[in-house]
Request: fold
Amino acid sequence: MAHPLISLLEQNPVIPAVKDPAQLPVAAPSRVVFLLCGDICSIDGIIARVHESGKKAVVHADLVAGLAPKEIAVDFLHRCGADGIISTRPQLIRRGKELGLLTVMRFFAIDSKSVSNLTRETATVTPDVIEVLPGAIPHVISQLARAVSTPLIAGGLLTDKAGILSALGAGALCVSASDEALWTL
Reply:
């Protein structure tokens, strides 16, 4: 069964990837925000600000300063109110699923070997969504969309509307973008 937040991702083709809490007011159009910032002292407040604006907060667990790459970090983010996590680490994705969080496995398509290994990697842990970086490679997104049944998010190196439309046309459910100019497209 698909996680309930998948439908929100589908309804919001451009997900703001916030690298600085000062960007939060600008992240208005989407009902989901990816948080690529914060530390163990501030992340609960940042999540609360996202919730106060009526949005869901998906936290990149690997980027929260002060968190160790261990399952307990996911428990901490869950207690802080995170609606989901992003990570490159299968054990964090597994724990997020156990806690009912939306799980986004970040995947770097750096060469053909990494692309071909993705199906094997997702066999051991099944994330709700896979974020493919860089998102500006529609032929790889298309290839992966055919190879895995997990929905894809395209992220990274998207600089304009044409790139976003190309990624969506290649099979991405949505895109994540840190460039504020892209958030309202």
